[in-house]
UniProtKB/TrEMBL annotation:
Residues 144-344 form the Aminotransferase class V domain. One of its GO terms (molecular function) is transaminase activity. This is phosphoserine transaminase. Pathway: Amino-acid biosynthesis; L-serine biosynthesis; L-serine from 3-phospho-D-glycerate: step 2/3. Pfam families: Aminotran_5. Its cofactor is pyridoxal 5'-phosphate. Catalyzes the reversible conversion of 3-phosphohydroxypyruvate to phosphoserine and of 3-hydroxy-2-oxo-4-phosphonooxybutanoate to phosphohydroxythreonine. Belongs to the class-V pyridoxal-phosphate-dependent aminotransferase family. SerC subfamily. Its EC number is 2.6.1.52.
Length: 380
């Protein structure tokens, strides 16, 4: 039945894209690509037009995140997963401590575990659906966790571990599905890094990082000593944070970026700032998320997966369905009606929906989605 069920047109959202990454790209962003076909697309990323574009994004991000005066913004190719390897090569001196509470927060810890020049990481772990932050740990020089666990819809606080600055440890935060959707005090971090395919409504394949002076100094020191026998450290050019920062200061990347991604991201950053910046974006996401959580709590067949309201994400919302209602059938019926990417994270293996509520997604469409889910479930 799910394959043929038709939802009335007047119930459908205007835009049915609710993916958690890649996420919805606004039509206005796509339109900017046409404007850039003769001046940007197909031209050198080291020439002024593209460098001005990169500079515009860096300035816009500095405004959006209320950047402290001595912090800098760097960028490179490879996505946030590449930045895990960059951090292992250029930011972790000897040993790191990790908060692990889902697939993505665990992956950074695994990268550190297999780096031959680092000691085994200290991992503070909890089952999916909650979070745990690393605690002060002797000899650790970096504390790492995810602001938002994309796989589970858990949001974690961003604050320095007590005493971490006194021990000279850095705070490295994965902001991939949080940046642009959740509030953050950048001064509580040394590297806040993310990809643009979530709240910044662009394509993947790039990483952006906001770096403190301590992080910049750490990278320079580690990479300067890379050839000393006692370090046993390998920092290939592609994973050199210092090299990425040197290029970023020139508004370029080490190797060729996707210009279309930059064009769309620049438009999105301008749109966010023009509407009110971080305060506006985070309030909009909170409104959309609240609609979903409230709907699930009222429902007799659904409930929020994250039981602690303080740990619930306003960027990625996960909803458990009663076992009598197969989530895959609901997801399939929604997709047949143009409502896409509502399935749960595959590796989590839960009977649930996972819904992105990034700034580009209209709250009215989120409300319409809840009605469509009810309509489908009633007829399964």
């Amino acid at each position: 039945m799910a394959n043929t069920l038709k939802i009335p047109n007047d119930m459908l959202p205007e835009d049915g894209r609710f993916g958690c990454g890649p996420s919805k790209i606004r039509s206005e962003q796509v339109a900017t690509l046409n404007a850039g076909t003769t001046t940007l697309l197909g031209t050198s990323h080291r020439q002024r037009p593209v460098r001005d574009l990169v500079g515009s994004i860096r300035e816009g991000l500095a405004e959006f995140f209320h950047l402290p005066d001595d912090y800098e913004i760097a960028l490179g190719n490879g996505g946030a997963s590449c930045f895990w390897e960059i951090a292992c090569a250029s930011l972790i001196t000897r040993q790191a401590a990790f908060g692990s509470y889902g697939s993505f927060s665990a992956k950074f810890a695994k990268s550190a575990a297999i780096a031959p020049f680092l000691e085994d990481p200290v991992v503070y772990e909890v089952e999916p659906g909650s979070y745990c932050l690393p605690e002060r740990t002797e000899y650790v020089d970096a504390y790492c966790w995810a602001h938002n666990e994309t796989s589970t819809g858990v949001a974690a606080p961003v604050r320095r571990v007590e005493g971490s600055m006194e021990q000279g440890a850095l705070t490295l935060i994965d902001g991939t599905s949080a940046a642009g959707s959740l509030p953050v005090d950048i001064s509580q971090t040394d590297a806040y890094y993310f990809s643009p395919q979530k709240a910044f409504g662009s394509d993947g394949g790039m990483w952006w990082a906001i770096l403190s002076p301590a992080a910049i100094e750490r990278a320079a020191r580690l990479e300067a000593n890379v050839n000393l026998p006692e370090t046993n450290r390998w920092v290939p050019p592609f994973l050199s944070l210092s090299s990425a920062l040197d290029n970023s200061r020139k508004n370029q990347t080490l190797n060729t970026p996707a210009i279309a991604t930059l064009i769309m991201m620049d438009d999105q950053v301008r749109w966010l700032n023009d509407n009110g910046g971080m305060d506006w974006a985070t309030a909009r996401c909170a409104k959309s998320a609240s609609m979903l959580y409230s709907w699930a709590e009222r429902s007799d067949y659904a409930e929020p997966f994250v039981t602690d309201p303080d740990a619930r994400s306003n960027a990625v919302v996960t909803i458990n369905l009663d076992e009598s209602i197969p989530a895959y059938q609901v997801v399939s019926a929604l997709r047949d009606n143009g409502i896409m990417d509502t399935g749960g994270y595959r590796k989590l293996g839960r009977n649930q929906l996972r819904i992105g509520v990034f700034p580009s997604i209209e709250p009215a469409d989120v409300l319409a989605l809840t009605g469509c889910i009810d309509y489908v479930v009633e007829r399964l």
